[in-house]
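Reply to dn_fold:

You asked what the input looked like. This is it:
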Amino acid sequence: MQIPAGTDAHDEVSTALLTELRSRISPDRVLTDGPEYARAVALFNAAVDVRPSVVVRCATTADVQAGVRASRDHGVPLSVRGGGHDFWGRAFRPGGLVLDLTGMREVRIDVNNRCATVGGGALSSDVVSAAERAGLTAVTGTAGSVGMVGLTLGCGYGPLLGQFGLAADNLLGAEVVLADGSRVNTDAEHHPDLFWALCGGGGNFGVVTSARTRLHPVPTVVSGTILYPIAQSAGMLADLGGILQDSPDELTVDVGFLPGPDGKPTVYVAPTWSGELEVGNAENGPVRALAGLGTPVLAEVGPVARSATLAATDAMFHPGGWARSAREPSRASPAPSRPPWTEPPRTSPHRSPRSCGTSSMVPPPARLSARRLSAGANRT
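and this is what came back:
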């Protein structure tokens, strides 16, 4: 079924499609309108205004298989929602059928083998929090609200890049529903071509209903925020590049631009040290050396749980903030005067004084890492 441009998607929903879906999936999880539908189509980037015809809130792999087969049989465009964090809103297609995996957030930790099995809708924060309780952590991006599977399928760079690589480098296997609705389990030995494609190749090879990812014994890192006046940017960035050439792989640095505490533009340097805490937190260590690249207006670093760093980023970039900052760039809030994880949590999910103007940020931020890979060492 083709949805003409400008047509109300709901008017085009096939009765036969809905009948088939509701015969195989609980009818209350097949949504075409109403409050539940409205919540299901709300994305992180509120500037995306795409309305699918039907949302299927999947609870099992069988639900995903039923949705894939119905989409194929009725010629309806298919998309998958994991965390809903994609800036371009590719979780939805106009007039399409959405497989909403947000109900599939189970995380199982295998301590002995240092790996986690995560549901297709699990967020990065779900995985890190569960792993942290076992003294482990997962390779994620900087935000906890990002879907773990979607991040991995898109490569997934983040603050542990230097020592542990991309999220895709840590993928061990996956359960995948293919275009014909069949289910397969893939890893380096089973369906190796599919496994290779999933390691950073994107989301067009099937619906990943669960994935296994490698964990690492680094629940606590040395991290924080250092802000430099924009006038010092050329010199300090050149010096930073030189420092990272000789830095150990345990150090990864996130660099970008933010309004400072006084509203003036700054260069932010957000280091993450994933090695021994005593080394990373030393006054003359590699992390605090980054505060000596100029005269910072803020330099706050120290040991912190990885779950706290993810929560701090989520507090700065809350859902809908992209759209608001695009419409009202002059209202961009300054960066915090202290790291967000040192402040008490707020009860309101809608407003935060720590929210920074994303229109002032380089998207995505330039990430500089000490990781030096020989040619061909990284499969992605």
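Confidence is low (pLDDT under 50) at residues 1-11, 324-380.
Hope that clears it up.
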